Batch of 3 targets.
Target 1
Amino acid sequence: MTGRPPLSREGIDGALARLRDERDRIATALLDLENHQGYQLLKGAPLTGETKLRWDEIQARVSTLWGLFDAYRRQLELAEEIRARQSRPSQERLAELTGLLTGPSVEPPGGEIPLERRSLLGPAKERLTLDAVVVRMTALYDGAADAVAATDAVWSVLLDRLGEVEEAFRAAQNVLAAMETGDPELDRIGRDLAGLRAAVVGDPLSLRQGGRADTRRLDAAGDQLTAVRRRLEEALRMRAEHGPRMQAVEASIRQLQAAEDDARLARDVVLVKIASPRLPELPAQAQVLAQRLPGLAALRDQGRWPELSAAVGGLERAAEAALDQARTAHRAIAGLLERRDELRGRLDAYRAKAGRLGRAEDLALDGLYTQARELLFTAPCDLRRATVALAAYQRAITSPEAGAGT
């Protein structure tokens, strides 16, 4: 019973209709929650760690939800049963129904009031109105649904990325199987991936950052697998093409040897013809690289294709870099002779210009010319002094006064 006036028959029937609709919608929502993909994944997985704690909280919420819903449903069924007894209920029945439908008539499961919150004459158990039960169920449902959705969002991203990485691992294994050999790095990645799978399946919430799935460890494994698969595919190609590749490496070393010989020959000439030249170093890389060839043959004979592929690739890159260095050194060395020849050509051109200007008999100019020529045509040639002398001769041609005072 409540202190408020009883509802009319129409008010009772309207309240019952509203509450029936609420009951049906609540039942549907609870079933949808339990049928949700994330809920089912949580329910069926061997959870650990943070995710296990979150699942325990969700289960506690859902258990409380069903308990409240059962109490709510029983109270509503009791009211429906009482209403069905009389088509035209008496005032006493209307008052009873009003109390059931609007008053604190529901005892929630486990609703004992703690001693410190009781009054001397107050009840030992909590009693709620049907509307208050709905409010409490709504808060519990929202919390559980949000937790399930958040966990599912993290889990879905992680499972998708895990599937991609595991597919990459299987692809690398297939390449390795085609070579009928082993690979320690791939084995290590496989062990790491097994640990990641256990974390993704058992405790996905341990792999999140800022509320979102943190795929960095999976991404790193994927990058490693990409590198390993590329290396294994190169090894597989090496097994099929090792003959031509080995011949090409040997040819590149011979080419390097020829380039280094050309650079040394040019250096010997420059040391004779150019005074105090600044020459680049000429390391004997061809001989050093050639010493690695027997090791390649041993790897080939032992069928160690991944190691052979890496070794051949390294030797190819080293030979290419050394060849570029030798050619660059050769150009720098030969450039000194080219500079001398260029200065000689300019000297001849300036003398011809002096003749066109009618100054072929100019003694001052002739002295500057002779000085520059002696520097350029004497071995070893001092390029710095020759350049200064040639510049003086050029200025004298275009400035008679400068020439006369020289």
Target 2
Amino acid sequence: MRLRAEPSSPASVETDVLAVPIYREDRELSGDLAELDAATGGVIRAAIDWGQFNILEHYTALIDAGSIRAELILLVNGVRRGRGPWRARRIASTATRRLQGTGARRLALWLRDGEDADGYAAAGVGAMQGTYRPTELYGRVRDTEAMRRSVEEVSLIGAPDQAGLDHASTVAEGVEFGRTLANRASNDLYPERMAEVARGLESDGCSVEILGVDEMRALGMNALLGVGQGAAHEPRLIAIRLPGWERAAADRRLAIVGKGVCFDSGGISIKPADKMEEMKHDKSGAAAVIAAARTVARLAPDAPLMAVAPMVENMPGGNAQRPGDVVKAMNGKTVEVINTDAEGRLILIDALHWAETQGASHLVDIATLTGAAAVAFGDLISAYFARPRDWGAEVQAAADATGEWFWEMPLATEYRASLDSAYADIINSGTRDGSLIKSAVFLADFVTKPWVHVDIAGSAYLTADKAVNPKGALGTGVSTLVRLALDYAKQG
């Protein structure tokens, strides 16, 4: 898809479809919206009066454009004003997704109240997100040529410059890359295969290091290895360094660490069969950091960035880890495994500590870690924990700028006593109350540098089609990590 800055007014732009957001506050058309409605001959007001579009019931409505140069107008439910780039990204994604399978090739998007450069860039990413079709990953015979049609050009009315949209296109490609990695089936993408994918980043100038079982065992990564010991596919630890990593000052190196469980059966503490097929998405964190590294390498190869992806399968094989087992993590602390389905935190603690030994001065991990995050925040919002909080504020700012919705949670270390073990330094899973916070408190025991933990268990993928995105992975976190790395590099 091409993104283009459009200087024309909404009424004068020549396009197949003009997308116009409508808000709850638009009970009476006013200002620029009233002017556009008058230019069309009143078709927007008529569509609302006739019930073709109702803010409480409809996501979109495709109507005749009346007297203006566009062929059609697409009314898009903007829900409410506010949230800047988040709103822009969501509106754009809804618009291009609505036009999939139609004859529309050109879309002009009017964000109305105006946006800054970040808002237009977020809309560009959203527009490309909306054309994503998960069925293209493996091919679906029943899909017709008409079903495969999508918007080919999006003109963003009022965008300040083309360079910002070109940048957004690269970020959007990264989001799609991460999305596709997360969507790949577990028989197609297992630890060894993900390592092969990572090797491909060498063509972008990155250096790629892959640790196998023997190397990890020699380093004492027993927490990570214990999770994967019951699977036929052996664990891998992937490390991707950008050219700027080695040249950076010792106190200015950013490591992004992503949970990579290619399939999570729960192990001996096996999950219910219902919805277990979704557990191929338990590698979404790893997919995000690999995609972010590739994107940053293409935009700013001198950024001091390393991506780390611990890759395992959590399976109930004959040699699988058992509840009650005790493992020694790389940092020397011992962990009593109470629940083998609390496996993500086990692979993360070794990966985070290893990243510190490689010189990371600041860390962010991103993981589909707890069902509690999905229960608390649904599929719109990602929870994060920070130590110190000012480092978390930088991650929050990156999310806000790119249109992702992050929300800070308290790192209540007062809960640490509930993770005490009679046999080891710590247990890997406590009681259900406060379990979202306790998972972060567990991780905090193994990190000594400024660190943020992002839980995307609810926001990494959709379990059903929605107007804004299809079922499956969303590429959550990719754009935030890219922006964070770019901003971090500028500060060095």
Target 3
Amino acid sequence: MAHANAALTPKHRLRLARLIVEDGWPPSRAAEFFNVTWRTADKWAKRYRAEGVAGMADRSSARHTQHTKTPEPVVRKIVHLRWKQRLGPIQIAAKLDMPASTVHAVLVRCHLNRLTHIDRVTGEPARRYERQRPGELIHVDVKKLGNIPDGGGWRYLGRQQGDRNRIATKDRTGIKNTRYQAKVGTCFVHTVIDDHSRIAYAECHDDETAATAVAVLHRAVAWFAERGVTVERVLSDNGSAYRSFLWRDTCEALGIQPKRTRPYRPQTNGKIERFHRTLADGWAYKKLYRSEDTRRAALAGWLHQYNHHRPHSAAGGLPPISRLNNLTGHHS
């Protein structure tokens, strides 16, 4: 298609060429008539003689020859230095005595231009996956958070005031550690997230025992069922609760296949690990809470915001609930 400022469209190229070839006009006269150079007029006349009407169409402006590609042995060296030593284009170029722009082009072509594309442990390209339908796989884990003392914690009030609040809480509850220091306890947030939709379910508890984990699983499965999702598999880490016979028997009773990640390999459960960071930033540490009860009460509202309104990059900028079947009343 001719560009906006083109002197000749395909239709006018054909008229110009016919004036020269069929009517015998000199190229200079035809060029003056159409307000173009005589070289342009002569070019279209030659194409008309050689190709006819088809020669008047636009052609690609891409070059006929391409630059020589980087040899494969050099590409392998670049990839090796990127994987094993995490070097950037400038450092790799210095080692191999070649332009940094060439190294960068090779890294882009191999999808290694960003270190986030590389597994931190193995140095291999990160293997990303997503299940095809909701419920095919859910991830479960526990996020541990220190309880908030009465009056607020140190993150917002500073160390001195935070310590005073911890002592005041200890005086009220009488709970202290073995060294008689103030102890406010731990909040165990049991989290469940669907691999395909990223829709999340979470509960706060005071422990992470197998009995608690099993109870959370029962309620999570029922919660997903209300939204038309049937859980088929569950992926967990190697925590004691998930290695227990109770967990195994419960999954069998629910018709769920339990799976566990490889030891010391949290990347396999990376979706829920990333959710924990979002949970901490958006709920746990987002604002000053004056008590632990206040923070726990705010969890349900934040989860609704996350599931129904917060745009998620994995869902194309839509909230996770958009990937479930639109059941009446569930998406509002």
